Amino acid sequence: METKKQIRNEIIARRNKMDMDELLSKSYDIMEQCVSHFLFAQAKKILIFINFESEVNTKGIIEYAFLLQKEVYCPVIIGDTMEFMRIYALDDVKPGYHNILEPTPCEQNKWIPSQQDDTLVIVPGIAFDLLGNRIGYGKGFYDRFFQKEQNLAKMALCFECQILESLPVESTDCNVDFIITEQRVIEIEQEDIF
């Protein structure tokens, strides 16, 4: 089996072959499936990444969540940890870690888990398989976050070209509950969510 590094290089190269029109068109199809999904509908809080380079464009999903008056939180990297801060508009972010757009850290805007957690986490990644395993960018931010917050619903957004039959998995890797591509919604068999 290929190493994670080989898979990262191969999938990023595949993703980068798309021109901007194709990327935006496929992102729109993914957005439509995401915002009509029952997890998105039920969630009061959305923890979502802001797309970077050739990732699925998430800005439309963020704008739609604002329209529905959901609380929107985006990741910010502080040292070797990732926290989520609430944003009220897409103007609330600026280039941060590796030039990725992120909110300014602020204690009063920090996402805090609640007992009746109605939070959906929309997860980025480079490669996914049909069991919900993911390969991220190699820093482990999401894996460490999910080890602390184990009961959150996790939905990944990616292009069909990022789906592989299987991936190498380590004990510290956390998988997702659903994967949405421009062609389908992959539901991973899990216990009840929400």
SS content category: alpha/beta
- For the termini, the CA-CA separation is 35 Å
> Proportion of β residues?
15-25%
Strand order of the largest sheet: 3-2-1-6-9-11-12
The residue fraction in helices comes out at 25-40%
Average of pLDDT: 92
Helical segment count: 5
**Could you name the ranges where pLDDT drops below 50 across 5 or more consecutive residues?**
none
Q: Using the CA coordinates, give the radius of gyration.
A: 16 Å
Silhouette:
globular
The CATH superfamily appears as NagB/RpiA/CoA transferase-like
- Number of DSSP-assigned strands: 12
Secondary-structure element series: HHHEHEEEEEEEHEEEE
Overall CATH architecture = 3-Layer(aba) Sandwich
How many domain regions? Answer: 1
Q: Work out the oligomeric state of the chains in this entry.
A: single chain
CATH classification, class level:
Alpha Beta
